[in-house]
Design a protein that fits this description.
The protein is of the alpha+beta class. It has helices at residues 26-39, 47-53, 58-66, 70-88, 95-104, and strands spanning 13-17, 23-24, 90-91, 108-112.
């Protein structure tokens, strides 16, 4: 990060999103969403369909997909996610080096997520 890219001043802190910024969460999102689809008797999505269709928060997207049972589908999603996420999450290539450089530069960092 150069001083020119920050208007001449280094930021004191940077907040990162979690999903697909620091880690590749597409595989676990795909698997957890398909667990919900299957539990609700709907056809499962391909990986490409998941990447194309998952754009909204659960509270916005799931009522459109699951109707009145959207909260039940959400519970299935999160149960699957909690059970399997540590096995499937991978960091984005090069992210560890970037975070280390930011730490060495004295920049505070944080993570925000809706999960």
């Amino acid at each position: 990060m150069s001083a020119a890219s920050t208007g001449g001043a280094r930021p004191p802190a940077i907040l990162f999103d979690w999903d697909n910024t620091l880690i590749d969460s597409w595989p676990i999102i795909h698997a957890a969403n398909n667990a919900a689809m299957k539990a609700m008797g709907l056809p499962e999505w391909t990986f490409d369909q998941t990447k194309t269709r998952v754009r909204k928060s659960m509270r916005d997207a799931y009522p459109e997909i699951f109707g009145d049972r959207w909260e039940e589908a959400g519970e299935v999603f999160y149960a699957h996610y909690r059970t399997h996420h540590l096995d499937e999450l991978r960091s984005i290539t090069g992210i560890e080096d970037m975070l280390s450089a930011l730490k060495d530069a004295g920049i505070y960092m944080g993570v925000v997520s809706n999960k």
